[in-house]
Protein 1
Amino acid sequence: MNSHAAGGFLDGRVDQHARLVGDGSMVRDGSIDPSFSGDHEGVHAGLGAGGRLGIRSVIGWGLRFGSTLVLLPIRGLRSLRRSMTGASVTLLLIGIVSLNIVWGYPWSGIFAATVTMLVAGWIINRWMRPQLRIGFSLPSAVPVGQSFPVAMHLRNVRRFPAMDLSVHFESPSAGRRRVNPPVFESSQHRESLSMIRPYQRRDVAVSMTGNRRGVHRLPAVMVESMFPFHLFRSTQRSPVATEIAITPQLLSADEDPIARGLLDALGGWSHRLLAGDALDYTGSREYQVGMPVRRWDFTSWARLGRPIVREFQSPSIQMVTIIIDTGRTNADRGATTGTRKSKRSRLPWSRNHLDQQVDRPLERMLSLAAVAVESLCQRQVRVRLYATSESLDSFASPRSLSMVAQNEPLLIQLASAKRIGSVVAAKRVQEVVEQLGRSPILCLTTRPHDDASLDLPPHVTMIRVDDVPAHDDVAAETSPSDPLVRASDSIGQAR
């Protein structure tokens, strides 16, 4: 290596009087530059590392390529086995039988025909694989356990028709272990379509049921094509981004004595809140389906020829705030993950284990809150709702301040509620109460009666929702420690 090459490669400059000595230092005009030794070693080290990295990348690429070549036939056979139908299996058996018979006419023709049909059917099935754009029409919210219609809009975006189709929502595999029950269940397993012409749309109606509260995405849509002649099956999975809110189920008095007591406590609070308030006439509007009617405006109805209703509102109660305390307590943990004596009940796929995943106190509290929202909205009272799982900024947002007497946005808000820490929840409840002043407030909580972490002013009504197993023999018996009495006793300060 000459001095010109060394200087140009290592230094980027040309030095005719530079040379390397044995220890790796550079000599310039008779003087030794010891600082060059480290740079020289670093360059050689970098070259060595780069060479090792290059070798490793080549080895890794070779291993990946080899594994792909080895696994490609296996993946192809598995894909072929999944796509085969009863017709293709029958043709395959005929071809195998024709090979085991003495070769000659007509068995050679049968074998050739079966092979040709199998190959041509597989190629045509892959070539005619449909490409669909899927849209949905469904309600924005629905209670738990209630069926709701879903309309799938299938549009063929190819220049070729989509034929022999089967469309359905993806269902959880029966062979897999599932810790939680399925969120959705469909009453119709498959919908068969003979053909969708190019750039045309077909609608498919499906009935579904939501099993778990929350805001969930719809399951993926599975599109299967068995063209031609149902020889092979091509399956495409289309993920769905459409969401629906599964709201809490309304608490019913027929469930158990505790539910009846909670509803009585809520009814007493509502009666005390609105008792003696004369309703003011706010105006008339055209009747719409589902609108609560307090009084018909027959004069306007006769003049306009359309049903007109009169609207009233309480002058003193302009807005009511409902606070949902979702703080997690020790009692809630026990109710959610209770132990079972049976070993079978502790299996991840057993029904008892699935039942343990449901937070019963939280669900009962949200069901009671849904009843309160429905009742107040029917009386044309504006309701603000705050769940402690939300941030305080969301409560102070303009959308929350301008809430009208509509129950659906509030029920969707209840669907999103979840458990948080007990200390954080208590702090958020107290901050919201301080912001509201002395306006009517109803606080629902699952904290036990002896929990002093949530200290609220006297004008705030608190209803404690306990989840105690109900028995028929104690339906008519109550004691001071009974949650029914505790809930009723907390109604004294409603305003």
Note: The mean pLDDT is 75.
Protein 2
Amino acid sequence: MMKLALLVLGLAGMASAASVTCSDPVSNNGRVTAKCGSTTYDLTCAFQTKDTDYVSVLVPNGDNGQYIFYLNANQGLKAGSSDVQYCASVDPLSPTVSGGFQADYKQGGSCWSIGDITQQTWIEASPGQMQILIKGGTGNRQAAIYVSCDENAAVPNVTYVGENDATNTYQFEISHRSACTDYTPGDCNSAPAPTKSPSGKSGHKKTDVGAILCGVFFGVLGGYFIFGFVILHFVQKNPPSESVPNKEFWVSLPGLVRDGFAFTLARIRGQSASTYQSI
């Protein structure tokens, strides 16, 4: 319920301090894009599958029956299409091309539009998080679709969130890689290559803690030698061979490492761990 309430609140307000209202979706060469601030989104592949020009989800209607929802916020759906089952006819007051249909799964022909494809608004809630509101369906029905970035989703994952009876709004969530800001549009009928960041690496940038720690260690060690040499040689006027900081320690270090290995090996073998030599 909390998740549904937040989704409804975000779509009902249609704006927040961090959100960006996008330009009207533009159709070109079978793809639909919208510019949201400095980012252009192409969500064509989020609304179709390899076999259909839409995505769908089956939902129990509470009366031992089921509804099936068809969605395509990009190019829309036409009633009577052989691809859209159970929608042989639609309320004549509905738009010819709809952004989605609600169909009775058991009674063929009982189908209602849930949004006019020409009455939609796209909003970028945050980078990689899109909100699409489609109004003008049968009986003032409307669809609120939340599309989020999932770089591993080559196929759209569609979830029915619920219905807001007060506004007659049907809410859906779709996760797909096309909502990612670094997504490169491709053929929806084949699994596209993983999205690439400007650095050429897949996915989000991740902090390599090991690399950071190694960098800090060797940076400090290098500074230790450089500044120590400067002070010993140029300030204290020692010859170069005597200007290595803690020279005696570094000279004895190989022997200390050898003794450490010998001690550990002796412990493993169960021998005496003493490595001291007789005087």
Note: Residues 1-17, 192-205 have pLDDT under 50 and may be disordered.
